[in-house]
Amino acid sequence: MGRKPIRRGASQRMVDGKNFRLADEVRYILRRAAAHDGRVVTIGPLVLFSTETGDAWLLDPSDQLAARLARDGDPEPFHIEENETTFMIDWKGSYRIEGAAFVYMDRETGRLATIHGYPTHKLIQMPIQQRSATGRFLALKKTSRGVR
User: Fold this and answer.
1) How many angstroms separate the CA atoms of 112 and 116, rounded?
2) Domain range spanning residue 9?
3) Contacts of 31 (CB under 8 A, 6+ apart)
4) Number of domains in the chain
5) pTM higher than 0.85, yes or no?
6) pLDDT tens per residue across span 92-140
């Protein structure tokens, strides 16, 4: 079994439990971005979203970490390691939401980008489900009750 959808709507879905693969969800959101289709997916403490402009992101709202997955429908380089019980994400930067603006700061370059037109109203409504370890890499454990 690949994944266990908990709630799925026209533009939002939640995935929980040990029966998911982060790589599958990343591929899904990349396909949505390539089709310029705005979607929001939550997996435990993580949020993936795509936009009608073809951008896609992976976020950790509890620590405001971000990894850009696609820009203008084209995939961006990112690094995720996953096995049966854990996954690790190489976060490229951090983000914050200021009203309708999504503000991203790249860790390597220090570059700050303010982006308008993202679903910030949906992103700020996402619950912070779990505190992660602060740092560049986040390792989470998959369990029958969700992601730890």
Assistant:
1) 13
2) 5-147
3) none
4) 1
5) no
6) 999 999 999 999 999 999 999 999 999 999 998 865 543 333 333 344 4
